[in-house]
Structures are given as C-alpha cells and as structure tokens.
Specification:
about 240 residues, Rossmann fold, SIR2/SIRT2 'Small Domain', three-stranded antiparallel β-sheet, 10 helices, about 35% helix, binds 2'-O-acetyl adenosine-5-diphosphoribose
C-alpha cells in the first residue's frame, strides 16, 4: 500500500492536470449517511425513492421533510480530513478540478473553490414554476413557497430521472477528457454519467486511481486502487505535495 501511495503521490506532483470525482463516501467520516450504505434509509424509505420528481409530485410534504431532515443533519456536520486534504490539493496543484456528486456543501466549507457540484446543493432552493432560485441556509417550513409567484419551492438538487445542468456536465466532461490523473473517491460508481468518467479519462491517456474501502464495478479497470477510508488516504496523498 505504501508503495502505491508513493506512486500516486508522485503522479499528483508531476505538474499534470488532476481531476477528482467524489461521492458520498467522502462525507461518511463527517457523519453524513451514504446513499446505498446501511445507514441510507430514512423512515424506512430509500433515498433513491424520495430523490425523484415523481415522488415530489405525489408527496411533496414527505420529500420536503426528508430534505429538511438532511439539511438539519448536515448543518451539524463538519468537513473531515478528506475534504480538507482535497482543498489543500487544490492549493498545491496548479491545474486541479474537483467534481462532486455530493449536495452537502462540505467541500465548499473545507475551502475548495475549483469545484463542480454535479447534483446541485442542499443549500439551494428553486421555484417549481418561475425562475426564482436562491441559496438558503435557514430553517425552511414544511412546504416552502416562492416569494415571487407563491408556488411551491423545491430543493435545488438534481433528482433521479432529471438531466444534469448542461453547463455543469459540459465542464465536467471537458476537464475529465483533458486530465492526466483522474481520482475517483468514495463513490459506488453506480450512477451515470459520473460512473463512466474514469473511462473517458482513460481513453484520453489519464492514469486512473480509485480510493474506497470497498470494491466498485470500476475497481478492476483502475490503474491504482487504494483500499481504505478517504479521510486516511487523501491526507497522506496531500501531505507535502507542494514541496
Ligand atoms: P453511494 O452511497 O452509492 O456510495 C458511497 C461509496 O462510498 C461506497 O462505494 C462506499 O464503499 C464508499 N465509502 C464509504 N465510506 C467511505 C470512506 N470513509 N471513504 C471513502 N469511501 C467510502 O454514494 P454515491 O456513489 O455518491 O445522486 O452515489 C451517487 C449518487 O447516487 C448520489 O450523488 C445521489 C445518489 O443516489 C442523486 O441524488 C442524483
């Protein structure tokens, strides 16, 4: 493991373009439940059954209750060593981009700026009818309504079955296609298109690295698979990078 870590560290210090994709596992050590882990159920509902437009259309109060619970849970969590290491990497690696599937905002709170939030943010809300959208960290009512047109607000996240924001997807694909080193961290690699980013990176000659305590469908295709928690491995990779 130590030899692999040193090799990946050398790659990161090599002056090339580094793109990191993160998933829920990066926030697990902050106490944020992953989607598909044992702690992924809320009141017997799977997150995947609530994070969808048809669930919101049928039961907006239940979906809002779920999102208000998540907002409250995450507001009590703090960035962990993995988030901080990625923010440090951004400062040390001139050509760096972090792409996250997470909506918890912990990368921003850790100090990451070169960041694409592919699935939106828990801290954004938008109107289901008009163009009103805003960042909002306050406690929201059970069914918040739009201050402009009075219709129902919804969480500013991308749900299953919804397209990603086109500009965000384009930027992500461009960066992944130009990467020299591609790191996939704390994602089960079960949700597209993020699950295929490693392939795009590989096709364009990037070295691919996975960090996860458990294998994923992509593990066997990666150049380096580092098995373990992101909060332990990323700080080791980030330590002394700029020296
Ligand atoms: P998942 O819950 O599917 O996967 C979490 C991954 O994190 C698993 O592979 C775990 O093994 C790994 N993991 C757990 N603890 C870890 C740790 N300490 N360090 C590193 N890895 C750890 O979450 P995602 O892959 O992020 O989308 O799920 C992708 C998308 O599916 C989410 O963004 C969400 C979802 O349902 C939408 O809501 C649209």
């Amino acid at each position: 493991m130590q030899a692999k870590l040193e090799m990946v560290k050398a790659l990161l210090s090599g002056g090339g373009r580094v793109v990191v994709l993160t998933g829920a596992g990066v926030s697990a050590e902050s106490g944020v439940p992953t989607f598909r882990g044992r702690d992924g159920l809320w009141k017997h509902h799977r997150a995947e059954d609530l994070a969808r437009p048809d669930a919101f259309a049928a039961h907006p109060e239940l979906v809002w209750e779920f999102y208000n619970w998540r907002r409250s849970l995450v507001s009590g969590c703090h960035p962990n060593a993995a988030h901080l290491a990625l923010a440090a990497m951004e400062r040390q690696i001139p050509n760096f981009l972090l792409i996250t599937q997470n909506v918890d905002g912990l990368h921003t709170r850790a100090g990451s700026h070169k960041l694409l939030e592919m699935h939106g943010s828990l801290w954004r809300v938008r109107c289901t009818v008009c163009t009103h959208a805003r960042e909002d960290f306050s406690d929201l009512p059970d069914l918040p309504d739009c201050p402009v047109c009075g219709h129902l607000l919804r969480p500013g996240v991308v749900w299953f079955g919804e397209p990603l924001t086109p500009g965000v997807l384009r930027l992500a694909i461009e960066a992944v296609g130009k990467a020299d080193v591609f790191l996939s961290v704390g994602t089960s690699n079960l949700v597209q298109p993020a699950a295929s980013f490693y392939q795009l990176a590989k096709d364009h000659g990037a070295v691919t690295v996975e960090i996860n305590p458990a294998p994923t469908p992509n593990t066997g295709f990666m150049d380096f698979a580092l098995h373990g928690p992101a909060g332990e491995i990323l700080p080791e990779l980030a330590a002394g990078l700029g020296e």
